Amino acid sequence: MLTRIIVGLLLIAALLGLATMDALFPSVPIGDLTFGPGVVLALVSLLLFTPLLALEFSSMVTPRGEARRPLLHWIAMAGGTMLVLATSGALPPSIAAPAALTAPFAAACLAGLLQVISRHNDGFSRASGGVLLGFALIGVPLGFWLLLRRDTDPWTLAAAILCVKSADIGAYFTGVAIGRNKMCPWLSPGKTWEGFAGGVVLSAMVGYSAGLISASDAAARAGIEAVDPIRCAWIAVLLGMIGTLGDLLESLLKRGAGMKDSGRLLPGMGGLYDVFDSLLLAGPLAWWLLAR
After folding, report:
1. What's the rounded Cα separation, in Å, for the pair 108 and 114?
2. pTM score above 0.70
3. 149-152 CB contacts, 8 Å cutoff, 24+ apart
4. Domain boundaries in the chain?
5. Are the C-beta atoms of residues 25 and 34 closer than 8 Å to each other?
6. Are 49 and 80 in contact (CB under 8 A)?
7. How far apart, in whole angstroms, are the C-alpha atoms of residue 176 and residue 173?
8. DSSP E strands: which ranges in 26-181?
9. How far apart are CA 27 and CA 37, in angstroms?
10. pLDDT digits over 128-174, tens only?
11. At how many degrees (to 10) do helices 272-290 and 50-61 cross?
């Protein structure tokens, strides 16, 4: 438990530091593009976050005895992120959209080519399916989180992330304390309906608090737009619920691969995907609710 708490606090500190660096990044015009706030998050996501996720994801979707292709999964994930940014106008669509759509196509073709080189007659459908799954479940939702940063402000992004993760935290501690009725024992034995309820309640409380803070004088001086606390609470509830679904989807991948955790990168927590599974799936909903 202590290790889990320490790692969690270090992750929060890292995210706050990254958000601060991103907010302070000066606008730099290069050709027809202007790189400003948001570029730090995008670069870290594409060059550090998704490669690490690709390593874990490749282990989960590759059957035992077959070669893992994390590079192919990273290409597909990066393509999904670029597609969201391109079609939203964050990147020049005339170049970025075709490049993003080419990524999963190229990754699937490479999966087939490597299958031919290895002289295996089976496994191509699984390999190409895993590539497209990485495109849809990781690349695309990550792009929506970056889009949320572009279309709102660092405070909104941080509040949305906190609402999703507070549901995870509330579910864990409530489940440990009073959890009795299993939610989905064949898939995720540790999840209970009591924990789910506790997570939703904590998420609503965090969302309501975020709304109160946004209406404060300090927030107004910082240029943060005031949002109705009740609306924030309902948004937080929806984000917390969709985050739970993201956790269950990852459990499907892990159970299919016979894995308890997606990796061992984070002591006490497992892998990177174990921590960010709920956040990733909540990305599109967060943008629709907060940026539209």
Report:
1. 10
2. yes
3. 149/22, 149/37, 149/38, 149/41, 150/38, 150/88, 150/90, 151/287, 151/291, 152/290, 152/291
4. 35-151, 153-292
5. no
6. no
7. 5
8. 28-30, 33-35
9. 7
10. 778 888 888 999 999 999 989 888 888 888 899 999 999 999 998 99
11. 110
